[in-house]
Amino acid sequence: MPQNELSKTELEIRKLELEIHSLAKSDRRDRLKFVIDFIQGLSIIVGVIIAINEFVLKDRESENQKSKVTLEYIQKVSDKEIIAALDSLKYFRDISYEMPVDDSREDSLFQSISLRFDKATIRLSHYYNVLHEGIVSGYLDKNISNAFLAYDVRETIEVLSELQSRHGGLQTKRMTPNYKRFKGLIEFYIDCYRINGEKLKEVPKYDLDSPAY
User: Fold this and answer.
1) What's the mean pLDDT in 95-108?
2) Greatest CA separation for the chain
3) Which of 65, 209, 92 has the alpha carbon at shortest distance from 159?
4) Is 212 in contact with 200 (CB distance < 8 Å)?
5) Rounded Cα gap, residues 31 and 25, in angstroms
6) How far is residue 153's CA from residue 44's CA, in Å, rounded to a whole number?
7) Which of 37, 120, 145, 207 could pair with 88 in a Cys bridge, judged by C-beta atoms 3.0 to 4.6 Å apart?
């Protein structure tokens, strides 16, 4: 075989070897890039999963904390001061009904009740004001509060409504108690029992000078 042909053959072989080597290197680079991309993608997925888990766990922890705080607060409805305040409200209701309508002493009676009303019922009204604001702000759990306090709030609303009815409900010439302190109770009651429409007219008012609901 001529020397020049042999050299040409060898060159072809060399060229083929270089191409194979180049392809091998390229294949290794592609495989390495695939592995790197896979690892990067996996790390992103793992990061997202961790973030979601932390969010869910923190959210769950926050909800548990809200439930705990709510349960602790609603138990205060049984505190002696709040019970005494409710008893005072009932007393004002009862004594207002003991006096006959149009009795000459009516104005004096309602003046006496009005002057004592704020101080005697402040713990009760404050309790429901804080409860209502806590629910509105998201600090206290609405469903737990409704479930545990539905009976208590209905009882208090009935007493308040009866007292308002005794002096005509709306502002009259005689002095009337400061019902604005019970805004939280009334708003909580409306929300708790989902009262709307015509039924709102049966709910006691915290502002006697304002129009009907």
Assistant:
1) 84
2) 144
3) 92
4) yes
5) 10
6) 52
7) 120
